[in-house]
Amino acid sequence: MELPETIRKRLDNFSRNILFDQTRTNLFAKENDGILPHDKRVLSSLQLQMSLYFNMWFFPCWWISETVMLQLKYPALPEYYKFILVTILLLMTLIEAIRLYLGYAGNLQEKVPELAGFWLLTILLQLPLILFQLLNEAILIQPLERGVHIVLTIFILTQAVSGLAALRDMVRHTGSQFHLQQFD
């Protein structure tokens, strides 16, 4: 039993307006009367997107536990570790917000520069900072800290690997599209 044509068109338009980027949908609508092309390959990585989604919800929990643990052990730390840990917390908060935004934009909108920025922030900044907090015993690591750092490290490593795979696929696809356009 199929839906009537008018209801199906309304549901199709509603889902396109809610779920997809309007600029892309409008381009396809002009070319194909509201139907997305079937030959367009989706390059977004589901594994990367799921990891970004769960990381987005986990990061506030990580931040709260890290702040509470830092407040508890602050009097027992040497002066230089106090400065280092507060600086790392502030840097990681700022970097993580930018990194998650770039990951979402690069993956869902299939934009290579944003995804490359996400991957570089992951490898060059977040991974060393979280490994410092996880492996340096001189900062008096508490059990709660160790647990949340391990979870965040797993997220970061998963995103680094899946982000590299998604970035490689997008670059290959973009390169092949560029070469095909030269012959049109």
Global Rg: 22 Å
The total beta strand count reads 0
Estimated structural class: mainly alpha
**What are the secondary-structure elements, in order, as H or E?**
HHHHHH
The low-confidence parts are: none
Q: Helix share of residues?
A: over 70%
Observed structural traits:
mainly alpha, elongated, 80% helix, 6 helices, 184 residues
Please provide a written account of the structure:
The chain contains six helices and no strands. 80% of the residues lie in helices and 0% in strands. The protein has helices spanning 5-19, 22-32, 46-73, 79-108, 112-135, 143-182. The protein is mostly helical. The radius of gyration is 22 Å and the shape is elongated.
Secondary structure topology:
Layout: H1 5-19, H2 22-32, H3 46-73, H4 79-108, H5 112-135, H6 143-182
Helix pairs in contact: 3-4, 3-6, 4-5, 5-6
Quick gist of this model?
The chain is mainly alpha-helical and 184 residues long.
